## 1
Amino acid sequence: MGFFDKLKQGLSKTKTSFDEKINNVFSNFRKVDEDFLEELEEALILSDIGIETSVKIIGRLRERVKKEKIEDEEQVRQTLREEIIKILDVENKELKLETKPSVVLVIGVNGVGKTTSIGKIAARLTKEGKKVVIAAADTFRAAAVEQLEIWAKRSNSEIVKREEGIDPASVVYEAIKRTKETNADVLICDTAGRLHNKKYLMDELNKIQKVINKEMTECSKEVLLVIDGTTGQNAISQVKAFKEEADITGLVLTKLDGTAKGGVVIGIVEENKIPVKFIGVGEQIDDMEIFNSKDFVKAII
C-alpha cells in the first residue's frame, strides 16, 4: 500500500466527519451567497478546525469568490482545498539536519506517542544511511526507557540510558559525548511527558536545552512537538504551552488513524505558523511519513 492510500485509510474517520458536514452544506447549494458561506463556516468550525481559523478560511474564500467570479459548486470545493493547503504549506517539511552531528529534541505530554515517533524517525534516518544515537532522557518513567530500547533495536540505533530518577540533562550530556565519540550523524533526545502546569518538568526541559545549546553550539537543531490527533482542540492549548518553553521547529501528528478530529491540524498550523513535519497513520515502523499538505487535504475533502 502506497503512502497516499495509507493516509486516506488512516484519515477515513476525519474524512467522514468532514464530508458529512461539508456535503450537508453543498447538498442545498444553489448559489455562493452569504447564507451559503456562513453555513460552510459553521461546518468547518464543527470539523475541529477552530473558530478563528474557520473565519479566516471563509474570509479568504469570500474574497476569491468575488474576485474570480466563482459560481460553480466544484470550483468552490477546489478553492476551499487550495486555501487550506496554503495554510498547511508553512515551509519545507524535511528535517533540517545540515551538520554532523545534528540534534532532534522530542517533546510532548504523556501518552501522545513520543517514544513510538522517535523509533519511527530513527528508522527513517538509519534507512537513509545515517548513524543515530538516542538519549533516553525520560528518567521519570522506567517503562519509557524499556520501550525506547525496543525501538532503538528495531531501528538499528544506539541508545544512551541511565537509572530511573537521574537528572535527565546528565543523560543528554552523556549522549552528546557518545554521539561525538562514535561520529554519529544524529542525536535524538526523548524527554519526560511534560504538562504545562508541571513547572519542575518545564524547568527540566529548559535545562536539557541549555546543555544542547552549550555542547552542540554549531549543530543543526530540531525541536519536534508530538501531538495526539485524538485530543482535538486540546492540542491547540498544548502547542501554546510548549511554545512558551521551547523554540518548536515542527510538529509530529500521531494517532490520526483513530480519530475524526484531524481537522485540528489546520487550526494549529494557522495559529502558530509551525509546520507539520511528520504524520503517523499506523503502528508499523514505516507508518510515519513526511507531511504532504496536498495529500492530506485531498484525503479529507
## 2
Amino acid sequence: MTGEDAHQATCGCGELRVTTIGEPDLVVACSCIACQRRTGSPFGVGAYFRKETVSADGEAGVYARVADSGLTVSINFCPSCGTSVYWFAELRPDHYGVAVGCFAEPEFVEPGRVVWSESKHPWVRFPEGLPEFDKGSPPPKPNEA
C-alpha cells in the first residue's frame, strides 16, 4: 500500500509498521485507565481505519484484554521496543485502531470525540465543543464508523 493518501505508523525502533490508505473513519481521544497505562500518558489517541485499508509489516506481540465495555481489545505491539502500534476492538469489528502518535505526523486528523472523560486528569483540556462521553463511545450505528 503506497500512494499520496497513504500514512505509515511505526513503533519506536521501526520493526513494526502499519500502512493505511485514506483518512480514518474516526479519531478518538480516550482517557480510560487502560489507555493511560498502555501509553504511559494521561490519554491515548486512536485513529480507526476500515480493515481493508490497513496492512501491517513486521513481527507483533498481542496483548488481549477485556475493556470496560465488556468487549475484547487485542493490542499489537512491537516485541523489540514495546510500542503498541495498532489494535482490534470488538466494538468496531470492521476497523483497526492505530495509535496516532505512531504516525509522527503533526498535521494528522484531530480527534472527533473524547471518551472515558470520567477518568480524565483534571488538568487535561481538549478543544471546546469536542463531544465528550463520561464512559466509552456509543456503539456505532449501522453504516457508521
